[in-house]
Design brief:
Layout lengths: L10 H29 L3 H27 L10 H16 L3 H32 L3 H33 L1
The structure holds fe (ii) ion (FE2) (2 copies).
Length: 167
């Protein structure tokens, strides 16, 4: 089902479609983070990725709860956006020789992921509220806060020395 296919008729359909999209994305992130942990040199960066892996696993479960609240079983729909961000990250990482430059590249890739997630959860929360589902909005909001915090943590790790050491 493409985003503009005729299967999406109502806001409710759009909400569920986007849940399926972010469900796919979160599961891809759970698969990608261990590799990023393995590549990171900075201990600070590695532990930030490890912490966010735990959070991301929990975000998958939180989405399953939202599906249930909608009377749907959890389903994924391919999200070409997250596939592109992760593929690009892998391509860039394989091109970087210097370890500290690699850390800077990993941070940039991870921040692209977080920004994607922030935009998706922002829309989902607005739509849940419009649909009168404040219960779903509240759960999704917990994830949004974690994504924003992960993004800020990455900024502070970059500013605390990763970028300078790489320069
Ligand atoms: Fe996430
Ligand atoms: Fe995230």
């Amino acid at each position: 089902m493409g985003l503009f296919s005729k299967d999406i008729k109502t806001m409710d359909d759009l909400f569920v479609h986007t849940l399926e999209d972010i469900y796919y994305a979160e599961k891809r992130i759970v698969g990608a983070l261990p590799e990023m942990i393995g590549k990171a040199t900075s201990p600070q960066l590695r532990s930030a990725f490890e912490a966010h892996l735990g959070e991301t696993r929990n975000q998958v479960r939180r989405l399953e709860q939202v599906f249930q609240m909608q009377g749907k079983s959890p389903k994924s729909v391919t999200c070409p956006a997250i596939d592109g961000i992760i593929d690009e990250a892998n391509d860039v990482a394989s091109e970087v020789a210097d370890k500290t430059v690699l850390d800077a590249a990993l941070i940039a890739a991870a921040q692209a992921v977080e920004h994607y997630e922030v935009s998706r959860y922002g829309s989902l929360i607005a739509w849940a509220k419009a649909l009168g589902r404040n219960d779903c909005a509240q759960l999704l909001h917990q994830t949004l806060e974690e994504e924003k915090a992960a993004d800020e943590k990455l900024t502070s790790i970059a500013e605390s020395g990763v970028n300078r050491r790489a320069a």
